[in-house]
Amino acid sequence: MISYGKAMSQPFFELTRWRFIPDTPSIEFSFHCSVHGDFTETLSFPYSGVSLEKLQTEELGHIITLLHCALGTSYYKLSGSKKITIRSGPVTLTGKGIVSRIYDEGMSEFRYRNNLPVSPKLDIQYINPPHQRPLADERPEHFDIAHEIRNRFDYPQVILAFGGGKDSYVARNIVKRAQYKFRSSSVATSQRVANVLTELNAGNELDIIQRTLDARLSAATAQSGLNGHVPITAINSFALIIHAVITGAEMVVFANERSADEPTIDRDGLSVNHQYSKSFEFEQLVSSDIKAITNGRLTYFSLLRPVSELWITRYLSKIDDALNNFTSCNKNFFIAAQTKKKWCCECAKCAFTFLTLAPFLPRKTLEKIFQGNPLEDPTLLDTYMEMLGLKDNKPWDCVGTTDEVKAALWRLSNEPEWKNAKIVSSLAALASADDPETRWDNQFTIENSKNVPKQFHQYFYEEL
Prior knowledge:
Structural class: alpha/beta
Strand order of the largest sheet: 5-4-1-2-3-8-7-6-9-12
Mean pLDDT: 89
Shape: globular
Number of domains: 2
Number of strands: 12
Radius of gyration: 22 Å
Helix content: 25-40%
Low-confidence stretches: 1-8, 130-140
Distance between the termini: 53 Å
Largest sheet: 10 strands, mixed
Order of helices and strands: EEEHHEHHEHEHEHEHHEEEHEHHHHHHHH
């Protein structure tokens, strides 16, 4: 880990500016780290042959600045400084609250796992520059370009986030049943990731927003000795919201479920949530800000917020094309990965997804999908115990609640083809305490609809 001398006892981080790259559908974002210098990354949108440089409006500039702040977490990690200066543009009061949470709660796992203060008193300062050009002069051009994009690429009213996992397929099915035209969209950090996402989408239309990280980031990270999780859902959310504003969509739909609200570690006043930017608290902040800044023209929400992971896997088990294509294993998305296997059967996400699908599929079917069986792997016992809440923390991954894990294990302990699996038999007694039948039934209740628009509500109650 890098050691700061007296001259660098108070490192700082700056978001210096963003700009449309002339004659391209791309935006460039610049950052400055007092320890490692300047960095630049680019986001390219899928509007071939279209220039975005004349699309500047106040509302779009605000959202791009929020995206700039979210992207900045990848470079902020190099020093983990308390002082953050935002020079790239003004944001609303709610927007400032969003930025504060991105760098506080959203980076708490990074701090915890690097032995830094989990909740430091951040000094976030805003130094607002003038707009790139007078907005009034750009309005006619803006509308011409936006009209061209909408007509040329025939964008529908729904932009649907697609990550290739079980949640994406379930949300997509519900949107289809509600008879909305939609366009699936993803953010990719490499061509490898883009290719995997395209394969998982099984020939359906998919927009790829290409994120090109600064080439110096890996070397600087190795030098700093600081690395860790960033609030990736915040990055993806603002990228897709910008995509929606440009294309005239009315909804940006994500598929984050209610389990994202449970902290990964929560003890002695310390709470850290690996999935913070998937949480309802964060969604509510972003939803309110986007609705206000667009005068209600654009709605951002998570379609699966009212339901549990077990509700989702039960639903997924009835979608044949999803079972043959989906994956929730992060190893598919490693930038340097070369394997084409969809499931490693070693990580927490594989272990959790297999467990929660097992109550709804025959054992042979599930083993064929995963090309393995995590419930027969004794090396995963500690992982399952973490998911049960029997260790200091849950796995640092996107897994469900301890109640969901207990419910699934209890259910399997009563199924002839599963009850003797090594993990199930080892943990059945722990999962069977405290009224397990009620716990199981509770997984299929549909909670308050929260941000989900009324027109989708009926599809949570209809059987496939």
